[in-house]
Amino acid sequence: MHMLNRDFIRQFADVISEGFIFIDSTGSIELYNDKAKSIFGILNNYGISHDSGRIEKGDIVIIADNSLGKDDGYLSKKDLEKIGIKDKKITNGSAFIGVGKYEESDSLYVYEKNAENLEVLNLIEKFHGLDIECEIDFLDKYVNIMVDKIEFKLSYIYAIGHMVVIDPKSRKVKFCQSRGYTAKGESIKALLNGKKFLGKGKSQESFSVVGKNIYDVHESPLIDKFYKAAQGEKISYKNKSIEINGIPTRCSIYPIDYENKRLGAALKVEDTSLIKKIMKERDEAIDNLERMEKVLYKTKDIDDSFSDIIGDSKGMKDVKKLVHKGSQTNSTVLLLGESGTGKSLVAKLIHKNGNRKNNPFIHVNCASIPEKLLESELFGYEAGAFTGAKREGKKGYFQLAEDGTIFLDEIGEMPKVMQSKLLKALQERTFYRVGGAAELEIKARIICATNKDLEDEIKKGTFREDLYYRINVFPIYIPPLRERKDDIYELVRKMLPNICDRLNFNVKKVSSKAMYDLAEYDWPGNIRELENVLERAVNVTEGSIIHEHNLFLRNDKNNNEKEFVVKTLKDHMNEVEKHIIMETLKVYKGDKRKAMEALNIKKTSFYDKLKKYNI
Q1: Structural domain of residue 102, as residue ranges?
Q2: pLDDT above 90 covers what percent of the chain?
Q3: Are residue 422 and residue 467 in the same domain, yes or no?
Q4: In a domain, 54, yes or no
Q5: Hey, is 62 helix, strand or coil?
Q6: Burial level of 17, CB count in 10 A (0-12/13-18/19+)?
Q7: What is the Cα gyration radius of the chain?
Q8: Domain count for the chain
Q9: Reported pTM
Q10: Contact 245/218 with Cβ under 8 angstroms?
């Protein structure tokens, strides 16, 4: 490939957020960016470490496979004879768990032909002094192999073949399967038949696919089209969904020409498995919360528990309901609303009324921490990780919030690079301290908040779409004060005595005209601005009555004429959409399912709109 063209493609690959693979006309991989490595699981794994090698006679081999022959290198019952298992009843598609000595007859196993009807398949045995527990969970889709309480757990989407090999003399891990085994050529079948496996761990040489043939790394009907495009054929393939190495993706193929000559082709890859999984989790969460509502929702109890949320308007009653529900679940909550609406107060109340209330509540303002320090503040660091680091190292906020709640405030301000690291941590529920090799588990409940429209930020390219789906499991929209002016009297009644007491003044009251002006004002700064206005009024008022001239509001209105407010077309369209949804619900007397069907809106989208418009 021409050097200028190579440099151009490498620079392009480094900045795009999708997976990017470039092959030359022979099918040899020239470029393979980090995002593609992440999608297909071939980044260096710093979890369990072991050297490279091969399975040898006498090694203890443990296999857990949810569908024999599907994602294990086409493993067959003939291959299982390598670990002493000879059973003609085992067929392709069977769920299988087995333990045996390599090239010996000593073994034990369980299997189930009709795996589609299973919820869990277990094997718990003692084998040559090792405590072995294996589990295939078909509902939560994971396979877990435990050897003497050491856990080797892998999640899957459709199918998986998982294997752990133990040295019988040292009783140490000789090999453990990890994500990306298809790309690495480390399928169970290949290793049972003598193929060498790579080492894992920080000291091991990183696995590279550059220079390998694309057929040696990826399995999919798409690869034929990709190769033909690299050779010069006209291939049209844009944004199509297809499985690669068992992972659901959305792909596009781009032929690459230079000086009228076909140099190869590029493949753009997006992982769709995360979005599908999160949307499923979200639908399940909504269904569960609707069922919980009948049991948990008691108006008096909610009002008593959340009396700090002031207001009896419909909008705030709905907020209290959602906050109550949010406190009863461990799902990630996303608090939405303008600055000053009380998102921090709501986050504390969710924690205070949940099952983690006796454990830490850690408030992290993502906007106030310098970008260079954010990673070490969130995840902590080891001793000597960087210049100026404490000798003993430091725990990060995620560790400090263990068994409690971490509140990621102003998450919309988080730098893009840090968003990627946070997504990985939230997705895998694990993280590494800066400079550390030990994988730590996230044991905190997560609440996020932002005053930004994250969907707009995604379009601008400042916020990751996959992170948005990860945190937007249980959204709570807190309306601005101008949308709930019925609450202003109650807010003033409760806030004013507290302000007077804090400032050492006798309790003051608000005149009727001053209260009218407070109710007419639009409150761009919301509750925070109201508190500041009242505090200023208390300070400047000499008597016991606060009059309108003591308020110093920025845009007093002297008439009742309702002026046309200039808004964007999108805002006007949102108002129309909200009105249509509300009227449809009235027609069906609040029956959400009937309204959804009448409007021909999908369930997830419908509930998004209910939250968005505070209906």
Answers
A1: 60-192
A2: 39
A3: yes
A4: no
A5: strand
A6: middle
A7: 30
A8: 5
A9: 0.50
A10: yes
